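FAQ: What does the model actually see?

It sees only this:
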Amino acid sequence: MGRSGRGVRAVSDSSIEITFMYRGVRCRERLSLKPTATNLKRAEQHKAAVEHAIANGTFDYAVTFPGSPRAAKFAPEVSQETVAGYLTKWLASKKQHVSSSTFDGYRKIMELRLAPALGTILLVDLKRKTIRDWLNTLEVSNKTLSNIQSCLRSALNDAVDHEELLETNPIAGWTFSRKDRVKEDDVDPFSPEEQRAILATLDGQAKNLVQFALWTGMRTSELVALDWGDIDWLKGEVYVTRAMTQAAAGKAEVTKTLSGKRRIKLLAPAMEALVAQKTHTFLADREVFQNPRTLERWTGDQPIRKTMWAKAVKKAGVRYRRPYQTRHTYASMMLSAGEHPMWVAGQLGHTDWTMIARVYGRWMPSADAIAGFKAEEMWMPVDVAVKRSTP
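And it is asked to produce this:
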C-alpha cells in the first residue's frame, strides 16, 4: 500500500501520495515533495497528523488540502447532512418521475421505517453494518425487508451518482434477508362454500364485481381501472393495461411491469358477471364497475373494503380476509383443477411459473397412479410396445 505498508508511497519524481480513511471513504492525496527518504518520513508524519485530527474531530479537509477536488464532498454543509434530511430532499425529487403508487410506497418506508431508525445518522457515516443490524431487529417478512432495502438503495445510489455526497453506496450489490425465517403465508383462499355464501349476501353491481374478481384473478386495483373498451367480446378476453391505487388519487396508471399488461380468458362465471353488469354501466362506455352508492368509478381498494366487502363477509358468516384473496382464490381453483401452471401464471400476470409453484404449490395436483402413461403411449417405440403387449 505504500512505504512499509504505512499508506505512504512515491508516485512521481516530484510527489508523494498518502492514503487515509475519512468518514468511511478511502482518501488519497498528493504532497508536492520529492520522494527522498527524508520527505517520505515527513509524509508519514503528515499522514499521522491528519489521522489524529480525524480522530479528535478537528480535521478540516478544505483547509488541510485546499486544492483537492475531494474537499467539496466533505464541506461542512455536506458532511453534516443527516440521513433524514437527505431522504426528505430525495423523496421530493422523485415525485415527478415515479408513479403515484411507487411514490406513496417510498414515502411510507421513509416516514415509518428509515427516518425513525436511521434519520439522525450523518449520511456520510452510514455503514452497511448499521443498516444490517437494524434490519435484523425488524419483525417483518423478507418481502418487506426487500422493499425497505430497495428504497434505501435507490436513494443512496442517487447520493453517489447525482449528488456526489457519497463515494460509494454502502449497500450496493448486497441484500439482507432471513433465510432461516419462514415467510408468513398470506395465501388464504375462499372455499367454494365461502364464495357462495359471500355472493348470496350481495346483489347488483357489488355481486358482479366480486364474482368477476373470483373468476379472473385480477387485482383490485386493476378491476376498478377496467373500462368497457378493455373487453374483447369476440375473443372472450379482458385486456389488462391499467391499475388504480389509493395513492393515485382516482387516476388510472399503466401496470408496473410488461407482464402485468395481459389478456385474461373470460371463463363462464366471469362472462356471466360481465353480462349482468352491462345493464348498469355499459351505455356510458366508461368504467365497468362503479360504487353502487355514488354511481361513480371505485377509487381503490379501501372504499371497497369499507363500504361493501367487510359487511358482506360478516353477513355471510365467513372469516374475514381482504379482497385481494379473491386473486389467490382464482389461482388455487385453476391449479386444483389441473390447469397448466404456465397458463395460470400468464392469467395472473407473472413472467414465469416459478412463483406460482412456490406460492400455490399445495394446490397443484400430485402425480396419480397413471402418471407417465400418456407420455409412454405417445412416445414409446413401436417394437417395445409390441413386446409389452405380447403375453
